[in-house]
Amino acid sequence: MTHLTYLEAAVVGLVQGVTELFPVSSLGHNVLLPALVGGSWAKDLNVAAAESPYLAYIVGLHVATAIALLVYFWQDWIRIIAGFFTSFGQLIRPAPGTSRWQGLSVNEKMAWLIILATIPVGLAGLAFEHAFRVIFGRPVYAAVFLCVNGLILFAGERFTRSSRRADRRIAAEREFALAATGRGGSARHASGHAAVRSQEVADGRQSDQRLAEIGPGQATLIGSVQILALLAGISRDGVTMVAGMFRGLSREDAARFAFLLATPVILAAGALKIPDLMGPLGNGIRGQVLVGSILSGVGAYLSVRFLLRYFRTRTLNPFAIYCLVVGLGSIIYLELIK
To answer: What pTM does this model have?
Structure first.
């Protein structure tokens, strides 16, 4: 791993930060990229190798990605974490006439929805991550699963009428609110970054009110599909969004829930690999790790801002097409040409 160059570190870091949040699988790209480039990249950046230092590197980059998400959602996380601690009073001694769950506030419900939705993938990751990486970490498998990911995204758009109805309802409510206040999109844009960010936070609160209605069982079901992302080529955020859309969430709300769920998962995954990078596996590459982490964090922050706006009015179809084209192209190149 001492052969990891700053160029390799920078490219992998940026790819990790962007593709972690775009529904196109960061692990799939980080497996395919070295194989497609070839040469020293294929030799040094092999995620399936025993005690792979490359795996420690790319998973370590998750810490930077998670920090970017925490920075973007910091006000939301303060509310949600506070809600976790205040929820115990209602859970231990429910208010008269309410069930334990019904008596919780939106923030308290969001805290428990995230916890319940994270438990399945956390347990599966601890139990099966190594086996999945060794068995399915080959580039051709990543290409195949990237195609599968594209089909999942297409299915999410084709078979989720209730999600499209939710999109239209939220868009109508937003237009009504803008008309009632006498503000249009151009005025909002002209009001500056602080006002735009304030509106994003307000939109997040409204989204949480809708998300809090899905209930613990559905949240656990939606979160469980993240287990599929242990397969290189399957996007964690993509399959989580599709699962949310099948449960009637709008694209915007499904994306927000996916990003909130991703934060503790990728932070924990990255934190578990940090000791490896501090030990012998990190010798000679800590400067490269720093460069890659900075680019990963910047890429993730810009991506989440873009995607939350994108999914208000646009679909998963472009990402599905991308996954199919890149996946099929990679299979042809790796199996027939290379």
So the answer is: 0.90
**What's the pLDDT tens digit per position in 210-246?**
999 999 999 999 999 999 998 999 999 999 999 999 9
Within-domain flag for 1: no
Range of the domain at 213: 6-337
- pLDDT tens figures, 259-295: 999 999 888 887 777 777 777 766 777 888 889 999 9
Within a domain: 198: yes
Q: Is there a contact between 56 and 68 (Cβ–Cβ < 8 Å)?
A: no
Answer whether 65's CB lies under 8 Å from 292's CB.
Answer: no
Using pLDDT thresholds of 50, 70 and 90, give the confidence band for residue 187. Answer: very low
Contact between 15 and 30 (Cβ < 8 Å): yes
Task: List C-alpha distances in Å: 157 to 47, 161, 248, 278, 287.
Answer: 32, 8, 12, 43, 42
Q: How many domains does the chain fold into?
A: 1
Residue in 321, 328, 331 with CA at minimum distance from that of residue 24: 321
Phi, psi of 184 (to 5 degrees): -105, 175
Asked if residue 16 lies in contact with residue 61, where contact means CB atoms within 8 angstroms, the answer is: yes
Reported as a single tens digit per residue, the pLDDT across 34-59 is 889 887 777 767 766 655 667 778 87
Residue 244 in any domain: the answer is yes
| Separate counts of helices (H) and strands (E) for the chain | 15, 0
Q: Cα Rg for the chain, rounded, in angstroms? A: 21
Name the nearest CA neighbour of 204 among 168, 165, 253, 238. 253
User: In angstroms, rounded to a whole number, what is the distance separating the alpha carbons of residues 248 and 267?
Assistant: 28
Token duo for residue 76: 């939301």
In single-letter form, the type of residue at position 200 comes to: E
Phi and psi angles of residue 158, each rounded to the nearest 5 degrees, phi first: -80, -35
Q: Determine, yes or no, domain membership for 204.
A: yes
